[in-house]
Amino acid sequence: MKRTIDTIYWLGAGFSRESGGPLIKDFFSKEGDLNKILEHKYLNDQMYHRFNYSKLTWFYDRFKSFVGEEETTIEDFFNFSQSAQFIGGQFKRANISYKANTIHKWLTDYIACFINDRIDYANIPEYYTKFINHCFNNKSAVITFNYDLILETLFDKIGASFNYNQNRSLTSLRQGITSVTSGIDYLKLHGSLNWMTCSKCKKINIFRSINSFAFSQRCRKSNCNGKLRLFIVPPVWGKNKYATLLKPLWKRALDLLENAKRIVVIGYSFPNYDLLALSLVRAAVLINHALQIEVVNGTKSDYSKFEKTPEVICNKIDFKDYASTL
After folding, report:
1. What is the tens place of the pLDDT at every residue in 257-298?
2. Does residue 120 sit in helix, strand or coil?
3. E strand or H helix at 115, and its extent?
């Protein structure tokens, strides 16, 4: 029997902000210098990654100068590196060419390290715990576009189970991690810092945290031994490369939205470059005519795109204040 859902919480980067999570503008800033982040133990070869980071920033600066610095973000570069893989593009510096998938790998590693460096998982504000208790004790589900492990940490804290809805793709769960195959629906539509996918069998290995990462690890599936790579997905329209692993998640998200009473959007602005996310909501509304939508994007956000739709309620408060009402 399907679990009835009253409220779906739709989370973006702004949700994690009050717990230290970075916004788009924070990446490749001075405080995002990977040379500082490299002190952390989850990078095996510090000199190797520092050398890659210097190349990565050089390519990013070149990309910005062509596109236009004011309009360029790390997500633009992330999307471009993904598209370049599709068309077989290469990056060139000092007469040395680098395949697009190599640049994409470096960028993925940087994003993961920077996010993990910014969030102090041992000191997540208490109102986040109140929020996750509310989700667990009420008929709620969570759809998130964030890669971080804030909610996983809180599920562990309160001893609750959750469901990634990745049952068909899972090959290995690491000892000590909370159950991820039953409980509250928790859909990470762009992947997660603790997911690694196998280069051969394409199955997902789930780790307890990013600190478990060893980039040379091999798949634990019998007779496979493929190389594991971090599974986080750029917010692009075409996600064909990830379709096998992502399609069940997006389909489950649509099923939930079509039967929910309301969506509460927290810290997500529906950026133009991720049309698939907007299409997901539009598809749900065409079926679920009674679906209510509330947007909680903080006091400093631009709500103009939401205010054009009469059915959308704009609750212009910060997440901390919203959590206090639960």
Report:
1. 999 999 999 999 988 777 888 899 999 999 999 999 999 999
2. coil
3. helix 100-118
Distance CA 238, CA 94 (A): 32
What is the rounded CA–CA span in Å between residue 25 and residue 27?
6
Phi, psi of 200 (to 5 degrees): -105, -65
Q: What is the pTM of this model?
A: 0.88
User: What's the burial of 233, exposed, middle or buried (CB within 10 Å: 0-12/13-18/19+)?
Assistant: buried
Q: Which of 189, 199, 246, 192 lies closest to 227, judged by CA?
A: 199
Q: Which two tokens stand for residue 263?
A: 């969506």
Beta-strand relationship, 262-266 and 162-163: unpaired
Q: What is the mean pLDDT of the chain?
A: 82
Largest CA distance in the chain: 60
* Length of the chain as a residue count: 326
Residue with token string 């103009």: 304
Q: Residue 315 to residues 6, 140, 142, 255, 301: CA-CA distances in angstroms? A: 19, 19, 19, 26, 11
Burial label for 123, CB within 10 Å (0-12, 13-18, 19+), is exposed
The structure tokens 């996010």 sit at 115
Instruction: Output the six-digit token pair for 307.
Output: 């205010």
SS3 253: helix
